[in-house]
Specification:
six-stranded mixed β-sheet; 14 strands; 27% strand; globular; mainly beta
């Protein structure tokens, strides 16, 4: 490769010398970077060590939704298999003082109202159990899906939070719910979800399933993930806004396999109320801003 004479001279400059009488300026040098390792992502993933080891990292702040196979309707489902009942992507993210739930279906959500469709996120906040194995069975589905609370999204833009541990059901503000075509986004205050929790929010896990009614497993059309829980992703926490952070959380799936997700943070904006950035978050997650990812760190 041909280099400009000035660059070639700078790269081959001699070491600095000292003079007894006066200091002589040292020529500017370019330090080759070919052998440097550039680090990105989670410290535990890249280094196998916590973030406080002193390593300089470049954390990623964009994370794509988790995908779910198209057309994997449960064989036990007894309802009409509309495309809007088939999950193809999902994500749950902590942003400031709210938890943002996202789901994308294989088809439009609105028509599912005709068959009683609704969308449930089962969230395990530390005391989750395999509730599909209870009175709703048979058939047996999702033996490794655990939850102790429910975030419900209805196709008409309403919803609720059901805290199974405290027995409190709270309607969600429709202003915090956005449904557009085949995807939806809902923001829930963490203060509403924390009562009864035994783990901090960054250790919570979840599963998303559409269904055409309440009470029986045959009404569940899909599970995302297929059998197990996915970890939440963290962009920022209320007490850490404006601070850079990079950690990792894990969720156990069947067979003891751990699914890891990067926990990245940085400069962020408060969501404000009521969920004023719902449209932008939905667009980012839905891929209308150039990719299936979250890009809240402006």
């Amino acid at each position: 490769m041909l280099l400009h004479p000035l660059v070639r001279s700078a790269m081959s400059c001699p070491p600095p010398t000292r003079s007894v009488n006066r200091a002589r300026p040292t020529p500017a040098c370019l330090e080759p970077l070919e052998n440097r390792r550039l680090l990105s992502g989670s410290p535990q993933t890249e280094l196998g060590a916590p973030a406080d080891t002193g390593a300089v990292l470049t954390p990623s702040v964009r994370a794509a939704p988790l995908s779910d196979p198209r057309g994997d309707i449960l064989p036990t489902y007894a309802g009409v298999a509309l495309p809007g009942m088939d999950v193809v992507a999902h994500k749950v993210t902590i942003v400031g003082d709210r938890m943002v739930f996202f789901g994308r279906m294989a088809g439009r959500i609105e028509p599912t109202q005709e068959i009683g469709g609704l969308y449930l996120f089962g969230v395990d906040r530390g005391r989750g159990t395999a509730r599909f194995l209870g009175p709703a069975a048979p058939p047996v589905i999702g033996p490794h899906v655990l939850w102790d609370s429910i975030v419900r999204v209805n196709p008409d833009g309403t919803g609720l939070f059901n805290n199974s541990l405290t027995g409190v059901v709270t309607p969600l503000d429709p202003a915090n719910i956005k449904i557009s075509g085949n995807h939806f986004t809902v923001g829930v205050p963490l203060s509403l979800m924390t009562p009864g929790a035994t783990r901090p929010p960054e250790e919570w896990t979840y599963n998303l399933w559409p269904r055409n009614g309440i009470g029986r497993n045959v009404q569940v059309s899909d599970l995302a993930p297929d059998d197990g829980n996915a970890p939440v992703h963290i962009l920022s926490r209320g007490g850490n806004r404006g601070q850079s952070q990079e950690r990792q959380t894990h969720a156990a799936l069947p067979g003891g396999r751990l699914v890891a997700t990067s926990v990245a943070g940085g400069r962020s904006e408060s969501l404000g109320g009521p969920f004023s950035d719902a449209g932008r978050i939905a667009d980012d997650l839905a891929g209308t801003n150039g990719g299936d990812d979250i890009d809240l760190l402006k």
